[in-house]
Write a structure and sequence with these properties.
The chain has 466 residues and is of the alpha/beta class. Helices cover 29% and strands 15% of the residues. The chain contains 13 helices and twelve strands.
C-alpha cells in the first residue's frame, strides 16, 4: 500500500511507501520538512480539520504595510487644521517681580559656580590687575600715614605752590636770602640742628663692606691726604686738564664703598677733558682709611672736609668748586647740599637719589638698626628738601626703575623755589652716567666765571633731550 503526503508550504503532493509512515523528509520543491502521515490515505478517514493557511511572502507584508501608511496619512490630512490660540494684547502695566523666596538662586549662582570658557579667560587676564589694586592702595596709605615726610607746619591760609618740571634750580647766591623768603613755620627743627644733635647707634664698627685693590698713582695725578674729624684720609688730585691759573674744580665721589683706578682714569675723563681740576677723595673706612663705616653719615662730613681742603689750594677758583657722584657717591653729593659753610657752588649726582626703602635692600650691610626711622631719615635727602642750602641736580636713568618711585616722592615734597632739580636721562643705572656727566658739564659751563651767579640751565625734557 502507499501513503500520500503533501507539503504544506508549496502544496506539492508525494506518494510514498507505507514503510515510511511517521517519518520526515525534505520537500524537493521548496526544501521544507514534510511530515509523512502514520496511516495510509486510503485507510484514514477524511480529516475534519481545515487545511493550514499558506504563509504570506515578504513582498505581501510590505504591500500591506504601505497600504496602511497611505490610509493613515490620508486620514491625518483629512482632519481640520487647528489654529494657534490668539494672543491677548499686553498691558502697559509691568508684571510684579516674584518675591525673593521664589527666586531661582541656582540660576543666579550658576555663572559663578560653573563659569563659561570666556568668563574664565576674562578673570585670568584681569585677575592680577584686580588683586594689585588693593595692594597699591595699601602701599600708598602706608607711605602717607605710617611714614609721613618731615614737613613744616604751614599757617592757615597758606597755599602750596604748583610744581613745574621745567623750573630750574635756584642759584647759589640766593642762599643768603632764602630764610627771609620762607613762610613762617611753627615747631619745626631744621635738618642742620637735628644733624648736629644726632648720634648714630652703630651696631657694626669696622671698615666698609667692599674689598679693594691697591693701585699705582697714574702719571700726572697727585696723591694727597686731607684731615676730617681727626682722621687722615687719602685722595687723588688730577690737574692734567687744568688750563687756567685758577681753574674750576670737581670733587668726584666714586660709586660703591671703595675707590678703584677706573674711578680716576675713566669716570673723571669728561671732567678732565672739559678743563676741570678733579679731586677723588676716599672716605672713612674705605681703602684702608681709619674710621668706621657709617653709611651716609660720617662719610658726608668727610666729603665736606675734602671740599674745604680743595678750596684752600691756590690753583683752584674758590667760586667754581662743584661736586658730583655716581651711585653711593651720588648719595654723598646729594647730602652735601644740606651742609653748612660748604665752599661749593653746585652739587650733582647720577643715580644717587635714595629713599628710606634703600636700607631695607641693604639690611645685610647696614651698620645701624635699619628699622629705626630716625637713623634712616637723617641719611637721605627726601624729607629734608626744605633745608637745602646748595643747589643740587639729580640725574636718573630712564631704565633705572628703583629710583623712579623716589622721583615722584621728592616731586610731591619740593616746592617751586626748591634747590632740588630732577632730570631723567637715557640709560640704566650705569649707562646713564656718561650722559649725566655730559649734561652736568654743559650746565656748569653756562655759569659765569666771575661770580657764582646762577644762570638758567638748558631746557630739557624728562628724558634729558634738549
Amino acid at each position: 500500500m502507499s501513503i500520500k503526503a503533501k507539503c504544506r508550504f508549496c502544496e506539492k503532493s508525494y506518494t510514498l511507501k507505507d514503510q515510511l509512515a511517521g517519518r520526515k523528509f525534505n520537500c524537493k520543491q521548496c526544501g521544507k520538512i514534510v511530515q509523512i502521515p502514520s496511516k495510509s490515505v486510503t485507510d484514514s478517514p477524511p480529516s475534519s480539520q481545515p487545511d493550514i493557511p499558506r504563509r504570506r511572502t515578504h513582498q505581501e507584508f510590505r504591500n500591506e504595510g504601505s497600504a496602511s501608511k497611505r490610509q493613515a496619512t490620508q486620514a491625518r490630512n483629512n482632519q481640520p487644521r487647528k489654529l494657534p490660540p490668539r494672543r491677548e494684547p499686553q498691558s502697559s502695566k509691568q508684571p510684579t517681580p516674584p518675591p525673593a523666596s521664589q527666586t531661582d538662586w541656582f540660576r543666579i549662582l550658576r555663572p559663578i559656580l560653573f563659569p563659561r570658557k570666556k568668563t574664565v579667560l576674562l578673570f585670568t587676564s584681569l585677575g592680577p590687575i584686580i588683586v594689585s589694586i588693593p595692594l597699591v592702595i595699601c602701599v600708598l596709605l602706608y607711605q602717607k600715614f605710617v611714614e609721613p615726610p618731615e614737613r613744616s607746619l604751614k599757617p592757615a591760609g597758606h597755599v602750596q605752590p604748583e610744581l613745574s618740571d621745567e623750573a630750574g634750580a635756584p642759584s647759589p647766591q640766593e642762599t643768603s636770602t632764602r630764610t627771609s623768603s620762607k613762610p613762617p613755620v611753627f615747631n619745626r627743627v631744621t635738618y642742620q640742628k637735628r644733624r648736629a644733635a644726632f648720634t648714630s647707634n652703630l651696631e657694626y664698627k669696622g671698615p666698609s663692606p667692599q674689598e679693594y685693590e691697591t693701585f699705582n698713582t697714574p702719571a700726572g695725578v697727585e696723591e694727597v691726604v686731607y684731615e676730617s674729624e681727626g682722621l687722615e684720609l687719602k685722595a687723588w688730585v688730577d690737574r692734567r686738564g687744568a688750563s687756567e691759573e685758577k681753574s674750576p674744580a670737581i670733587v668726584y665721589f666714586h660709586g660703591g664703598f671703595a675707590i678703584a683706578l677706573s674711578s680716576i682714569e675713566e669716570a673723571c675723563a669728561q671732567f678732565r677733558e672739559a678743563g676741570f681740576v678733579v679731586m677723588c677723595p676716599t672716605l672713612r673706612g674705605e681703602n684702608g682709611n681709619p674710621g668706621n663705616f657709617e653709611l651716609f653719615l660720617g662719610e658726608v662730613d668727610d666729603a665736606a672736609n675734602a671740599c674745604r681742603w680743595l678750596a684752600q689750594q691756590d690753583y683752584v677758583d674758590q667760586d667754581r668748586i662743584y661736586t658730583f657722584g655716581h651711585s653711593v657717591g651720588g648719595g654723598i653729593s646729594t647730602l652735601l647740599s644740606l651742609q653748612e659753610d660748604l665752599p661749593v657752588a653746585y652739587t650733582g649726582s647720577s643715580g644717587g637719589l635714595y629713599s628710606v626703602h634703600t636700607f631695607f635692600s641693604w639690611r645685610e650691610i647696614v651698620p645701624f638698626d635699619w628699622t629705626s626711622q630716625s637713623e634712616k631719615k637723617i641719611r637721605i635727602l627726601s624729607g629734608n628738601i626744605a633745608d637745602m642750602l646748595t643747589p643740587h641736580i639729580a640725574y636718573i636713568g630712564t631704565e633705572d626703575l628703583p629710583f623712579h618711585s623716589t622721583i615722584y616722592a621728592v616731586q610731591n615734597e619740593k616746592k617751586k623755589d626748591s634747590f632740588l632739580t630732577v632730570r631723567k636721562v637715557h640709560g640704566d643705572h650705569f649707562t646713564s652716567f656718561d650722559v649725566a656727566v655730559k649734561e652736568y658739564i654743559k650746565l656748569l659751563k653756562a655759569l659765569p666765571k666771575s661770580s657764582p651767579a646762577h644762570t638758567s640751565e638748558p631746557e630739557t625734557d624728562r628724558t634729558g633731550n634738549q
